[in-house]
Specification:
- Helix content is 40%, strand content 14%.
- The protein has 120 residues and is an alpha/beta fold.
- The chain has a single domain, classed as Rossmann fold.
- A 4-stranded mixed beta sheet has the order 1-2-3-4, with helices on both faces.
- The longest helix is centred in the middle third of the chain and has 19 residues.
- The relative contact order is 0.19.
Length: 120
């Protein structure tokens, strides 16, 4: 769950840097937050915590014109979330779309749900 985003960022961010513009949105989970005790089942929470760490590291390394953030979509009605989940796929995607379209003053290196910063 970390290798794919790492490789994708490795291949795409050099072009973002050369263009002086880029947005990376890592799809994480509250289960990967140390503030919640990395509460996810088994390796899932650990992998999401590693993805969050990658987000912080990349944001620190890349220029501010390339924004790197993580987001938690919440409990979404998908195969993983199941039919009883409280959010539609569209609701789960709102924060990702917001992060992908941030202006130059937007945050980088953050963790978000519902377009608001949440604790790591």
């Amino acid at each position: 769950m970390v290798r794919g985003p790492l490789l994708l960022m490795h291949h795409l961010t050099p072009h973002m840097v050369s263009q002086r513009y880029g947005r990376v949105v890592n799809l994480s989970s509250g289960w990967g937050a140390f503030s919640d005790g990395v509460a996810g089942p088994g390796a899932y929470g650990v992998a999401k915590a590693a993805l969050n760490a990658l987000t912080v590291s990349a944001a620190r390394t890349l220029p501010n014109s390339v924004k790197v953030n993580s987001m938690c979509p919440g409990w979404v009605r998908t195969r993983m979330g199941g039919a009883n989940a409280s959010r539609s796929p569209e609701e789960g995607a709102e924060t990702a779309i917001w992060l992908a379209t941030l202006d130059e003053n937007g945050p980088t290196g953050g963790f978000f749900r519902d377009k608001r910063s949440i604790d790591w």
